[in-house]
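Sample pair:
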Amino acid sequence: MTALMGLTSRLKVAKLHLITDVRREQGDFREFVVEALHGGVDLLQVRDARASEEELAEALAIAQSAALQLNATVVAGTSLSVAERFRADVVHVGAAGSSVDSARRVLPQHSLVGRSVHDSAALRKTRADYLMVGPVFGESFEGVRFPGLDLVRDAAATHRVDDPRGTPWFAVGGIDAGTIERVVEAGALRVAVSSAITRAADPQSSAAALKKVLLEAWGRTPGMEEYALKAFGGGQGLSFAPRRVAGS
């Protein structure tokens, strides 16, 4: 892997983060990735606890080939050994996984590291290049209560979305076409999703619908136009329209 021009800038203006497995059962990973990216996915994270390192590395390479053509970014999910092997531009570590510092030690100097946070204490103390905040929706399990929209509101208060020096964050957990408006109302302008796109009959349309909500929210939020301009040092190369398939 080589450094992508404007990697940090792209992260700042990213809105839709997709988490997917290698789609072994469907056997359509390449086609799925292309559709999702054309629908407007900005970050595509490959995460699959059942996949081998070889399967993960192959999936990351396929995703990277498509992403380079569409100005998107690929994220290596959780496995530092695969991320190191792939020389990942971005890696995501779970709340209970490897530390951000550990990830930085094995990755190229330009690489970015994201981390999941599940409570207000972690939200305030975690230092990473971006955060995933949640889970927002879903059933509690083993006595663990999901932080829900309260944590999204807390993130909006402590990590202002219009602060160009702040840490970008994505709300995550059970977000789909039926819940995204509630997440936006709570203060999120970026979301991470999985089944909303991975289980969709039409991944491109599903991604585009989610991205449309985020684009509209970004557009009506005071300060975000200036934020975007600062993210790119004056706005060069900005494009907030959903991507379209050639000929469509």
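Residues 1-5, 235-248 have pLDDT under 50 and may be disordered.
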